[in-house]
Amino acid sequence: MVSSSAARRGLTHAPWSRATWRDSVFVASGVPLQLAGWAAVTLPWLVWAASEVTIILLWLALPVVGVALLARPLAAAHRERCWAVLGVDVPPLPRDKDASPWDVLRDLRSRELWRLIRYHLVVGPLIAVAGLAMVASWLMGVALTTVGLYAWALPADSPLSLVGHAVRVGLLTGAGVVVLVATPFLAAGVARWDVAAVRSLLGPDVTQELRKRVEDLAEKRAEVVDAADLERRRIERDLHDGVQQRLVSMAMNLGLARETLKDLPPEALQVIVEAHEESKEILTDLRNFIRGLHPAVLEDRGLDAALSGIAARVPLPVRLEVDVARRASSTVEAVAYFVVSEALTNVVKHANATSVDVAVLRRGDVLRVTITDDGRGGASFEAGTGLRGLARRVNSVDGTFRITSPRGGPTTITVELPCAL
């Protein structure tokens, strides 16, 4: 028993179905447009006979100019045909909205132009041949199927006469029915081929569109990273100029009260002492937090001063080399700063090292950061030492992050950051 899906497919491709006639009209309407390119190439030779060398060269140039001038209008006509007949929307080429046909001649090396020419002179004519075969198939199917309608009027000695060749007429009629049943599938196949060719050659280049999309996404990501860094700096300023100053004032008042109010009961004085000590601890934590958000010294004096402050606070000998002739963007400097800060923290916590070497060098448009320690090694992304977070921070500005840490050491982290941001 024939399945319902097969039955629906058969009805869709029936000779009298709407889809069949739509595909047939679409394919047939494309034949003149698809042959127009070769018509532009051969027309000068058919109209004028070239005898002199100059005229021959002129006739060689005219087809090239003609095809180049017709390339975009013909492409627009094909896209309009896809929309008008099949409802398929093929976006125009980026330059179609503003460019005139003469603009094509100014850039004969254009990738877009040669994609159009490939369709008009190679793919389109092949589709036109298939379209003509479809038209011939319809005509042959109709002619064969209706042979019995006029065979009776033919003389008896005719090879298609019903009197002496009824079997032959019946076989031809059956063959016509087979052709009419097969032609819709041919029309649908040629239509799909034509639409695919129009999309790939007469629409926007998929590779260029993807490249442009990647560039747009990279630009937007850079904007997001810059905005996040700007927000961190704003929070740092607000905390430094607001909350921190109020805490400093409170700690000073508590310290003053602790020193001057000696005649208070011991319990009250103990409360003041504890509040004073607590306020100083909170102030220290707040300063460390602010420094972790975005140190003011980094923005004011650059990487050399900011990294020197980090190295001074590390309880290990740190050999620091900073050679940055031109400062990078604030976002890149912040990434470099936090990479060094987090790496030194990891060394102190996990490496059991006795010394660390830090080098920050700018070479051209690349800021190279190298941190090397003589610890026990074995650091990896799976060890939970914050390396994944560092790598994500570096990747946020299209940088590269590499770590070499064999068992027994040494461990070397190498980061390269693009300074062109």
Describe the structure concisely.
By secondary structure, the chain is of the alpha+beta class. It is built from 13 helices and five strands.
Name some characteristics of this structure.
421 residues; Heat Shock Protein 90; 3 domains; 13 helices; 8% strand
Task: Describe this entry's structure for a reader.
This protein has 13 helices and five strands. By secondary structure, the chain is α+β, with helices and mostly antiparallel strands. The chain folds into three domains: 4-202, no CATH class; 208-294; 301-418, Histidine kinase-like ATPase, C-terminal domain (Heat Shock Protein 90). The model has no long low-confidence stretch (mean pLDDT 75).
Protein topology:
Layout: H1 4-12, H2 18-47, H3 53-86, H4 101-105, H5 111-145, H6 147-151, H7 166-202, H8 206-260, H9 266-293, H10 296-301, H11 303-313, E1 318-323, H12 330-351, E2 356-363, E3 366-373, H13 387-395, E4 400-404, E5 411-418
Parallel strand pairs: 1-2
Antiparallel strand pairs: 2-3, 3-5, 4-5
Overall pLDDT: 75
The outline comes out as elongated
Please count the beta strands (DSSP E, at least 2 residues each): 5
Relative helix content: 55-70%
The biggest sheet, with number of strands, parallel, antiparallel or mixed sense and barrel status, is:
5 strands, mixed
**Class from secondary-structure proportions:** alpha+beta
Number of helices, counting only DSSP H or I runs of 4 residues or more:
13
The ordered string of helix (H) and strand (E) elements is HHHHHHHHHHHEHEEHEE
Strand arrangement within the widest β-sheet reads: 1-2-3-5-4
Strand content: 5-15%
Rounded to an integer in angstroms, the radius of gyration calculated over CA atoms is 40 Å
User: In the residues, how many domains can be counted?
Assistant: 3
Give the distance, in angstroms, between the N- and C-terminal Cα atoms.
67 Å
Q: Segments where pLDDT lies below 50 for 5+ residues?
A: none
